[in-house]
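seq as requested:
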Amino acid sequence: MCDLDGMRGFDLGRTYRNINSAKVFIQSIADVEFQKIANQIKDTKFLSVIGDGSTDSAVKEQEMWFIRGCRAGIVTVDFIGVHSANKATGENIVHGLQETVVSNLKMDWSQISNKLVGLSCDGASVMTGCKSGVRAILEKDCPSIVTIHCMAHRLELSLKDVTKKVKTYERVNILLAGLYYFYHNSALNRAVLQKTYEATKSQDEKLLIPTRVGGTRWIGHQVTAILHVITSYKFIITHMEQLLETRERVSSDAKAKSKGFLKLLKSKVIVGFLLFLLDVLAPLRHLSLNLQDRTALISCQHDSLESALGAVRKSKTCIESALQKRFSDFAPSSTMPVVNATRIADLKAWPQEWEDLRDFGDKELQILLEHFDPVLTEAGVNVPEAEIEWTMIKKEIHKSDLLGSDWVLIQRKYENKFTNILSVIDLIFTLSPSSAEAERGFSQLKCLKTNLRSRLNQNTLNHALSIKLHSKNILDYDPKPAIHSWNSSSMRQRRPQFERKKNTETENCDGVTAVNHVEEDNSMHIVEEEENHEADEEENIDASEEEESEVRDADKENDSEDDLSDDISENEVFENLREIEMEYEYIN
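struct tokens:
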């Protein structure tokens, strides 16, 4: 980009156009973004951390961390850093999280831990372990913290629990994966399938190339793979039959695969099971997409989960029982009543009649206030007043007919009247129902730290990820804060147009060294001095040439003497050898 600006006539200088300076620029931009996040954290009463782990291109364990907060009903999720752990243990992960907060956000860990109310992660024992996991270590400093196993991951595990013993499901997965690789790895097969479609298509039919069913754990990928095969079923069958009946040269491997695919595709059991999966997975896919939203609210997931269970119940399968087992903390008789109590923040679940609404959520609110009492008190919330305000705000919402609105509008309208209970609502919204944001962060990490950049420094990786995830588009980006940070971060003044001066040294006849500074100056005084120096330099050059010629002649004489001495020493050696040989012959 600098070279392009130079071609257009902009003189940007050469001082900072190198790799090291580019790292400093990236750091300055990232520092501005991290400072914005730090300011938001300081103004937020409650916080929740979202974490997950994976390996990068250098086969290093990386732990990704995001922080979630809510102010006036508006949820924010921000990247706070990624750290590498030599061994993924609970202590190392928590220690890395604390170091990330200090190094990137320039904050003490106590400023985070005093506001921490939730931890969202996958179900790995190193994260959710009750003895030495991240959950157990954080609970020592934050007794009120609630650990939530990612609901999107639990949804996948529920489906896996049901299908792992069904052989037909395994055969369907083999078919979907085989069709994907059959057309993905061969441009010829894709081209022939396209020609088959163009030759046999009708007006409303379309061709969808088979997609990958594995690789990710989201249900949506599996539904897409099934939908593509069903939509292009006629064209795939026709193509497979052409491969078996063609008289042209076709590899034996392609014929064998086509024969196996045709056998599965023409099976009534397989086709029926594909259609059955499409009907069953459709509501679960909708739930999975809701959970992957970065601002998804845990209070709204109760109704979404019940809707998915109702849709699955019609299929009369064991998926319903598997879902109920995995999401037992959302049941009224749960051993984790705090999660179940969050349903009071879902306005859609509120009764329409005042007689039913009057006592709605009183028990659940009491559970929340007792569990989060230390954090609420630290945030300046009056807990007894919150109970009183709960009944009052229900009456106001019912009278104003705001049950169909959202909490952002309610917060703006009653922020000065019901401060305590609205703070409790913000606390509920701070709890994250899934850790999908960390998964998206790892997708960006793998785009940055590729195989060709596997030695990327950890600090540079943090800075690049911060810019990637938080900076605005280059057309809307304001560089002034980053430029100010860059200017103020140096011990001395920045000099974009600085150029190093050239020095020439000459030695005169008296042996005194004279230094001529080559500068761009148009004054007459400097011109006269330069003319005098040129005359002196000509005399010095003549004298130096005479001295060099004398030294050169002396070196030649010395070299000839050295060569002669070497020749004499060699002759002496040969004469001694002849004398020894003559003596040896005389003795014999």
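The longest helix spans residues 524-587.
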